[in-house]
Design goal:
The chain is mainly alpha-helical and 130 residues long. The chain has six helices and no strands. The protein has helices at residues 2-18, 23-33, 38-65, 76-91, 97-111, 116-128. The longest helix has 28 residues, at 38-65. The chain starts with a helix and ends with a helix.
Length: 130
């Protein structure tokens, strides 16, 4: 189930914000903990790899689009969620952007602050509608 794959990717990307390279063992442990199928593990791994490869570009885009909140002021959980959604929106043709935005808002409701879902939804909505 891709929802669980996104959660696993979120946990890895979030951890990587604090410790740049957690390694393959860490990723595999997260996938195992989430009880992901091989297909879902591959989806999560692809998400994480795209975020790692394009992180600087995504952060620059966030700085450009969120003028009142420079990237360094965005909560780490929200930043990880936004990075994952931007990876999906820009590099996963099989996932409609509106689905990526909805899934990101769901992650924010679960893992971040009370207002984060609206913030994430607004930022991503502005990006896909630009």
């Amino acid at each position: 189930m891709r929802k669980l794959a996104r959660e696993a990717a979120f946990k890895i990307v979030f951890a990587n914000l604090f410790h740049e390279e957690n390694g393959k063992r860490f990723r595999e442990a997260v996938y195992k903990q989430e009880k992901l199928s091989a297909e879902d593990s591959a989806f999560a791994e692809r998400l994480v790899c795209v975020v790692e490869e394009h992180k600087d570009t995504f952060l620059a885009l966030l700085n450009e689009r969120v003028a009142r909140f420079p990237e360094y002021r965005i909560y780490a959980a929200d930043k990880a969620i936004l990075l994952i959604a931007l990876a999906e929106i820009n590099y996963f043709d099989d996932v409609p952007p509106v689905v990526s935005v909805s899934e990101a808002a769901d992650l924010a409701r679960k893992y971040s602050t009370e207002k984060s879902a609206d913030f994430v939804n607004g930022v991503l909505g502005g990006i896909i509608n630009a």
